[in-house]
Write a structure and sequence with these properties.
Involved in lipopolysaccharide (LPS) biosynthesis. Catalyzes the transfer of 3-deoxy-D-manno-octulosonate (Kdo) residue(s) from CMP-Kdo to lipid IV(A), the tetraacyldisaccharide-1,4'-bisphosphate precursor of lipid A. The structure is a single chain. The chain has a 7-stranded parallel β-sheet with strand order 3-2-1-4-5-6-7, with helices on both faces. The chain has 2 domains: about 20-210 and about 425-440, 3-Deoxy-D-manno-octulosonic-acid transferase, N-terminal domain (Rossmann fold); about 220-425, Glycogen Phosphorylase B (Rossmann fold). It starts with a helix and ends in a 7-residue tail after the last helix. It has about 450 residues and is of the alpha/beta class. About 50% of the residues lie in helices and about 15% in strands. It is built from 20 helices and 14 strands. The protein has helices at about 5-15, 20-30, 65-80, 95-100, 120-130, 145-150, 165-175, 175-185, 195-200, 220-235, 250-260, 265-275, 290-300, 315-320, 330-340, 355-360, 375-385, 395-405, 410-425, 430-440, and strands at about 60, 85-90, 110-115, 135, 155-160, 185-190, 205-210, 240-245, 280-285, 305, 325, 340-345, 365-370, 390.
């Protein structure tokens, strides 16, 4: 047995013994998000749902969480156009991903949990569903999953692939386990040239650069129209958003906007800022934190209203509130279209930032912190295009947002730049569908 096989055998032993820990984790997560308690047996490769019937290709798409599922939706639209009779097997790892993925299903499609990466669970999954191809979204490389799929002759591709420098270093430290998994991929279609170089460095043999699927997303027109109505209800009061915030960022954000830095500013600028009185909109990245973030804002003495507390129009108490908590899923277009500026969550702590493309596509000026390594090229291109501004911390970010509120011309320029930036980089969905066709239809396509 060679070294790689020995390491994977040890890994497989660990994953088998860790199954009780997985159950404990699911029960703990399920206390806050009941979706984690649904169909738990599927996590261990025990499925009651039949393999999708039909003559079209059975395409398995794995989208672990919410962001990956939204990217998968863009790809899926292009795939259905190419293969109207395709059958979909959709898997996830998180409750939010599965809830979002349910919206993508059509008659005959199947949605289940991704199997835990033990040999037994993976083998049962593959034997039960027998997909024609496996499409892993963005970063999801699991050693046993890739190895067993290759043994079954299922081509596995990493689509919309990204690999940060930090992730590459981690993968290289676990090279004996992960390098064979990356090498066993049929292909990886990267978002950027830098991602492609890192994927090649960790062992992927066939790498292409097809762009970022998220540029192909279209803002929801109904949500944009609702945002316009809400602007009218607010009577011209401006909205500043902390988008997809992570733990710790909300506390610092609240401190900054409660006591904004005024040193060195002219008295008329200070007076103008005081008159603006923005409405602060906080949209946490993870739904299990909605309640805690709302409680944090109230503990700071702020008048807080949660978006989930009304339907069509904000009530009077929302119009006069200090803070809104965006505690709903699937309404980011609404929030970005409402905001005069958005501070990019995850970029003010060393977490790599969040996707800024949707903000740009909605024409929302972006203020981002120093940490955007998960979306490095998109952040750099947005800044170069004039759609985003870079700051060193949240204190400077809040000051930058105040400056934009006072400068309508700058906001218009950033908004137009964001729309042009988003439009310029579209096309990844069609390119990815073409690449999949080359795998599934080798007689009619160049490999």
């Amino acid at each position: 047995m060679h070294e790689g096989a020995m390491i994977r055998a040890l890994y497989s032993l660990v994953t088998w013994f860790a199954q009780p820990l997985l159950l404990t984790k699911l029960r703990r997560r399920g206390a806050a998000e009941p979706g984690y308690l649904h169909a738990v047996d599927e996590r261990f490769g025990r499925y009651t749902t039949a393999r999708p019937a039909g003559d079209g290709p059975l395409i398995w798409i794995h989208a672990v969480s919410l962001g990956e599922t939204r990217a998968a939706a863009i790809l899926l639209a292009a795939l259905r156009e190419r293969w109207p009779g395709m059958r979909l097997l959709l898997t996830h790892g998180t409750a939010t991903g599965r809830a979002e993925g349910a919206k993508l299903l059509r008659a005959g499609d199947v949605q289940v949990w991704q199997p835990w990466d033990s040999r037994g669970a993976v083998r049962r999954f593959l034997a039960h569903f027998r997909p024609d191809v496996g499409v892993l979204m963005e970063t999801e490389v699991w050693p046993n999953l890739i190895h067993e799929a290759a043994a079954c002759g299922v081509p596995m591709v990493l689509v919309n692939a990204r690999l940060s420098g930090k992730s590459l270093r981690g993968a290289q430290r676990a090279g004996g386990l992960l390098r064979p998994a990356y090498r066993a991929l049929t292909a990886a279609w990267a978002q950027t040239e830098a991602d492609a170089a890192r994927l090649a460095a960790i062992g992927v043999r066939h790498v292409g650069v097809l762009g970022n699927l998220k540029f192909d997303a279209r803002p929801d027109a109904a949500q944009q129209a609702r945002a316009e109505r809400w602007r009218a209800a607010l009577g011209g009061r401006p909205v500043v958003m902390l988008a997809s915030s992570r733990e710790g960022e909300e506390v610092e954000f609240i401190k900054c906007f409660k006591a904004p830095a005024l040193e060195g500013q002219a008295p008329e600028a200070i007076e103008k800022r005081a008159k603006l009185r923005p409405l602060w909109l906080i949209v946490p990245r993870h739904p299990q934190r909605f309640v805690d973030v709302a409680a944090t804002a109230r503990a700071a003495g702020l008048a807080v209203v949660q978006r989930s507390q009304w339907s069509e129009s904000p009530p009077p108490e929302a119009v006069t509130a200090d803070v809104w908590i965006g505690d709903t899923l699937g309404e980011m277009t609404l929030y970005y279209s409402l905001a005069e500026a958005a501070l990019l969550g995850g970029s003010f702590a060393p977490l790599g930032g969040q996707n800024l493309i949707e903000a740009a596509a909605c024409g929302c000026p972006i203020v981002m912190g120093p940490h955007t390594f998960n979306f490095a090229q998109a952040a750099e291109l947005a800044e170069a295009a004039g759609a985003a501004r870079r700051v060193v911390d949240l204190k400077q970010g809040v000051a930058c947002a105040h400056g934009l509120l006072a400068d309508a011309g700058a906001r218009r320029r950033m908004s137009r730049a964001g729309l042009a930036f988003a439009l310029e980089h579209q096309g990844a969905a069609e390119r990815s569908a073409d690449a999949l066709a080359a795998l599934l239809e080798p007689a009619n396509s160049a490999v």
